[in-house]
Design a protein that fits this description.
Distance between the termini: 42 Å
Helix content: 55-70%
Largest sheet: none
Number of domains: 2
Strand content: under 5%
Structural class: mainly alpha
Number of strands: 0
Shape: globular
Number of helices: 5
Order of helices and strands: HHHHH
Length: about 130
């Protein structure tokens, strides 16, 4: 593996650690359905507690998936599924259309699956 790939992996690991630290909050476990101060709560706590925040995770994942190249069927199919969800979840994902077009033009074979389904999903999202 090249140094740049290892650097990207280290960067993603640091990002995931930061998100998980913010999501988990403290080291000690809390009772189910309770805030940090012990008061009962009717909602989920934390950054990822709201289902609507999933769209931001999908857009970030789509960015990484459009930067990555998958030449095998399994990873390409899984990545394509995430790209479809990202394109249909948030209009912000449409900012990635130029990158998807670039990848569609420059890549060959199975690697074109992800960008092509992303573009189709972006068209569907606009209608």
């Amino acid at each position: 593996m090249t140094t740049s790939v290892n650097g990207l992996r280290a960067g993603v690991a640091v990002l995931v650690a930061a998100v998980l630290a913010a999501y988990l909050g403290s080291d000690r476990p809390r009772g189910a359905g309770r805030h940090r101060d012990g008061a009962p709560s009717g909602r989920a706590d934390g950054i990822l507690g709201n289902v609507t925040n999933l769209r931001w995770i999908l857009v970030a994942s789509a960015t990484f998936l459009l930067l990555a190249r998958f030449d095998n069927r399994g990873p390409a199919a899984f990545g394509s599924g995430v790209l479809i969800l990202a394109a249909l979840s948030d209009p912000l994902a449409l900012a990635l259309v130029p990158l998807a077009l670039l990848r569609l033009v420059t890549w060959r074979g199975m690697a074109r699956l992800g960008p092509s389904v992303f573009l189709v999903a972006a068209i569907v999202q606009q209608r």
